[in-house]
């Protein structure tokens, strides 16, 4: 089945058979996530301390810990520095998976496409901004079972951070598993855990659409093509 589009994404395009529409184009909904890595395991095997790795690479201690514990993705130069110091292939240290090969789907004008989980329509960047400006919801609260605006979301998150962060920190201090970890690190862990729970509680209404592709290398190296 072929779909003929006239670029109606500014107002939202409703597709009768959305699953077939996605399948035909190899589209999928992009959920943001941090890439898994083998850094902690390799550091233990090599026998280098995190402090020494930080000094040699020049990466801040906080950022390096975030990378090690899977709290953030390293930039290209940081990934290369870490791999060089550990004498380990960067592509094995931060391995790519088949689902990592994608780019954001766009309309004919090159605008990123988003799927609205409320009305089931596809919007481009302009349509999304217009809808939000007109007061449409941006998040769904899985606890209260209702849709909320970005303003409401920020207020709820602010209240949670004020009421729960200290409690979580106190709980970590009493946990034997975290014995010996600095106070700053414990506060960081508490913040990460709270943010993780917040991310699970709230789901974005507008989810970016990705388009998968399969790369392959030319015989003599160089760029890849998209099938």
TrEMBL record:
It comes from the Bacteria. Transmembrane segments: none annotated. InterPro entries: Cro/C1-type_HTH, Lambda_DNA-bd_dom_sf. CDD domains: HTH_XRE (cd00093). One of its GO terms (molecular function) is DNA binding. PROSITE patterns: HTH_CROC1. Residues 39-93 form the HTH cro/C1-type domain. Coiled coil: none annotated. This is HTH cro/C1-type domain-containing protein. It comes from Geobacillus thermodenitrificans (strain NG80-2).
């Amino acid at each position: 089945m072929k779909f003929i589009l006239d670029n109606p994404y500014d107002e939202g395009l409703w597709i009768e058979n959305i699953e077939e529409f996605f399948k035909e184009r190899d589209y999928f909904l992009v959920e943001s996530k941090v890439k898994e890595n083998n850094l902690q395991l390799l550091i233990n095997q090599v026998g280098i301390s995190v402090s020494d790795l930080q000094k040699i690479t020049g990466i801040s201690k906080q950022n390096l810990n975030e990378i090690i514990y899977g709290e953030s993705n390293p930039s290209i130069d940081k990934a290369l520095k870490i791999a060089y110091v550990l004498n380990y292939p960067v592509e094995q240290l931060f391995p790519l998976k088949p689902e990592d090969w994608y780019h954001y789907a766009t309309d004919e004008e090159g605008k990123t496409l988003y799927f609205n989980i409320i009305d089931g329509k596809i919007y481009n960047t302009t349509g999304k901004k217009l809808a939000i400006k007109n007061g449409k919801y941006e998040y769904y609260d899985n606890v209260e079972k209702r849709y909320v605006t970005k303003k409401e979301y920020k207020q709820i998150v602010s209240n949670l951070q004020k009421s729960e962060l200290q409690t979580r920190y106190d709980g970590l201090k009493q946990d034997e598993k975290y014995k010996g970890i600095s106070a700053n690190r414990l506060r960081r862990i508490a913040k990460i855990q709270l943010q993780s729970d917040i991310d699970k509680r709230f789901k974005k209404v507008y989810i970016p659409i990705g388009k998968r592709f399969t790369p392959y290398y030319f015989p003599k190296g160089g760029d890849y093509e998209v099938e």
